[in-house]
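Data availability excerpt. The first of two example chains:
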Amino acid sequence: MTKDKIFIFDTTLRDGAQTQGVDFSIDDKIKIAHALDSLGVDYIEGGWPGANPTDTEFFQKKIKLNNSIMTAFGMTKKAGRSAENDPGLSSILNSNTPSVCLVGKSWDFHVDVALGISKEENLENISESTKLFVKEKKNLCLMLNIFLMVLNIIKNIHYHVLNQHMIMERDG
């Protein structure tokens, strides 16, 4: 029998903050992070540095955690700029967290309508963004929206992205 581990990834400090009537202060976020840490949550998504002043300031604090890994959230790079020159990715890098969670668009409707770019350009944005954080030796979680719901429609996109990550991992 193997001893596989299930990792707990908590999004309270970002997703929970999007609930109507919720407005976490920095002190609230620190208290919640410490409570999650004491529960032994593996990863705590602390918010989205650069998205608002509270999250940006929160990530500038030195928060001592004993059990958990603080994680910064963000999106893949914007089209038309390099990953190294993307302000959103720079904010994540400047958050000084060992772990990063990026959300990428994987449904063609989102790519076409929300991003207004080609599927190939979207793949390039995902690939270049992930390469940046791998190069910076960040623990990377890539969240591909609606992955399971439209898997048959987009399986070739995911195969390409996952294959690229396997090649990167193999080649170091």
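And the second chain:
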Amino acid sequence: MKVGSIILASISVVLLLIYGLDVTTEMISENSFLGIDELTRGLLLGGPALILPIIANYAAKKDQSWPLSAVILSSGILIVLGGMVMSADYILKQSMQEPTQDITLREMEWRSYDPVLFEVGMLIGIGGFQILLAVKRLKIISSSTPEV
């Protein structure tokens, strides 16, 4: 199952790279190269990319594989970086808005409940979980490797 798990995790990295490239081209030129909207991109590329490394980790739980750990680690890092870029983009867009003087407390509360903040937190949490899984695998592998 080791090879299958490495393939699953590698598919995740490829999906994340395609996702990132599509978002980057959309940020630069206002048109994505895939030509799909954000929701479809998230469902087709983002969802599987979040789940596949976790499945791969548990499918090969008993196999000691450095390559699988490295691929899961890189997937987690890409997800966390994506969340950080999304957060930076959100902060930049918020800072470019003109402040309004006549804003009520209720409006301020509603503005603070932005779904982007939830998405960023979710991405950083899932990416961090994948990083922890990979680090745990690497510690187990390194502790079971005999000293030469």
